Amino acid sequence: MTAALLLAAMGGLMAVGVPVAFALGGLGLAMLLAAGLSPLMVPQGLYSLTDSFVLLSVPLFLLMSNVLLKGGAGRSLFGAVQSWVGHWPGGLGIATVLSCAVFAAISGSSVACAATIGTVAIKEMTERGYAKPFVYGLVAAGGTLGILIPPSIPMIVYCVLTDDSIADMFLAGVGPGLLLCLMFIVFSFLYGKFGKGCRLAPKATWAERRAASLAALPVVAIAALVIGSIYLGVCTPTESAGLGFVAALAAVGRRITRAQLREAAMESMRTTVTIFLIMAGATVFGKAITLYQIPQEVAQAVSDTVTSVGPFVFAVCAVLLVMGFFLESMSMLMIMMPVLHPALLDMGIDTIWFGIIFMLMIECALITPPVGLNLYVIQAVAKTPIEPVIKGVWPFIAMMFAAVLAVYLVPKLALGLPFGF
Fold first, then answer.
1. pTM for the whole thing?
2. Which sequence spans correspond to the domains of the chain?
């Protein structure tokens, strides 16, 4: 009963336009006061949240990706991939997916990934006769790979909430990330082969390929540096993010002005503050619902009514799908995990495996209307109405559901080493 009232209150606050961070924090504080508990628990909880070395990686990854964005790294990366596959059927679509995958291995942010590659790919593809809804949907969906292919900011936050290993979580995302890339690539190839109006790009010469590849080499090197330093045990994720930022500055230093660097820093700061405000509100909310024994009650109710993993995962995915129509990914993560985590432990579900399914579902939230962030990123980049963007994402949402099913049926896709083998 308490949980139902809490959900109703949460829904009411968000329906009248209260930001998620303040809805979570306000409800948590009200619950603490109603129980006669000291409000000093709030600043104590916020201090414990911010006193985290791991979370320092969030602004650093954002700063690295924004510096690369301002420095034109997306254009170099797309040009290099296009020179190798652009003449294939659907080649520009394939180049877009591969560019998103590489940039995802640098940025950790789906929005940065979609914006960086979209600024180049949308113009190139539409000029070659690709239908605009397909182009917009492909870039929006390709951008979501920033959540799944490590490093990933939502994965970092998930591991902070569940006390899992970030390196293990990153590694688990590689197999499903490559699977999703393959699905997008096959769809682009079939679209280029059988779709109407797509014109093949001219085949690049070996000299053009060599020049384009050399121009993109620093971006690929940064991706290898960031991921390799973590998996080899040389750096923590935070140290790796700082190393990546320095490498990004070195790579684009001559192409970025002081004004652009300042703008990149401000954009990173705004995004970081937004994420941390939501986390702060969720921390207060999490303390309150724990003291009210709500997660334990939910876990007990799940254990009593759901006796197997399959129905539980299906039910969670259904809830996340509905929530994705109204909430962005970080809010879903902060609202759901404090409640779900005890149930996962109670049912003996591997939290790393479940985390990959969760990441796939919040990927869907990034491209489902009406509040999917990537939809509005592509709308802004392409300067287009939102309707064709929404029209173009539905096939990719279906592919994401197929990836969820694949990870459920073949857990080694996420838990096997390496890449599901």
1. 0.87
2. 19-27+48-415
